[in-house]
Amino acid sequence: HRGTFRTPPSRPEAESTAVAVAESLGIASADPSARMAPTAAALSLDAAVGYSLAASLAYSPPAELRRGSGGYQQRLAPRLAFSQQVEVDRLRASATLFEMEEQDGVCVAFRGSTDLKNYLSMFNLFFEPSRLGTAKGGRVHRGYQEASLELYDRLSPLLASRQPQRLAFIGHSYGGGTATLCALAHAEAGGEAGGEASSVDEVVTFAGPRVGDTQFAMRYDELLGERTTHYVHDLDPVLAQNQPLWNALGFVHTGRRVRCAAAEPRLLADGDPSLGAPLNFADHGRYLGTVLGPSPAGWGQG
């Protein structure tokens, strides 16, 4: 697949790179929470940083994004340009659409938590049967599914009218959960057979949650596993606290997990030393040198 922020390697190179990445990150594991060994090439560092900037901008209101004066927007220009934002007001869930220059594409960035309603949704973590698309496979997080279905109802006609040649779903934290489920809903709605989902080219999360059980994860990976990258880092206290809970409740990882740095644009191999202890809550909103989270006007000027 053509990359939004990268030049793709040749097929043999991509396959060998993917194997090396999977092995170095320890993804090819018998651990059910790390089930998938991806065969597609991992995102480049430039791509990861670009998506982190877009995920940060998803926290900004439309009026601020229309001005286009923020530092993060200027760093992304002209690759991505703000288009519009949709919101489910009763749940305070939102998604921001960015146009991809010269690729006839759309990047949909899902906002993380900004409101008590988001936290109530996150803590509604009971399993319920998946109602995403046609497969209805497995069980998913009730709160994330509720928000995702309502968001996708608003996104679906916009994406249908645009018919983008490239499409990426991205998000930070809570937004990573809604990005994952909306991506699956869109892939299922496309009706592709044989496990293919050409309507979704990339799913990228930063500090994203697990959102479903083993059966759900198997269906998700069948369609989008090789196109999904979850960025995590050692200093994130929210992820550190949630891992045991997710394990106990039976939530399972999808796609590939990639370790990265918090304060700088750097990717890490699984065997690299730990960056430290997850003690500072602010580190949940720092990925690859990008600050993600609610912010005053003018965020990202640095």
Characterise this structure.
This protein has 302 residues and is of the alpha/beta class. The protein contains 9 helices and 12 strands. It has helices spanning 11-25, 45-57, 62-67, 71-76, 116-123, 142-162, 174-190, 214-224, 237-249; strands at 80-88, 93-100, 105-110, 127-129, 139-141, 166-172, 202-206, 228-232, 256-260, 267-268, 286-287, 290-291. The strands form 3 sheets. It has an 8-stranded mixed beta sheet, sandwiched between helices. It has a two-stranded antiparallel ribbon with strand order 4-5. A two-stranded antiparallel sheet has the order 11-12. Helix 9 links the parallel strand 8 and strand 9. Helix 5 packs across helix 6 (142-162) and helix 6 (142-162) packs across helix 7 (174-190). The chain starts with 10 loop residues before the first helix and ends in an 11-residue tail after the last strand. Residues 1-40, 191-197 and 296-302 have low confidence and may be disordered.
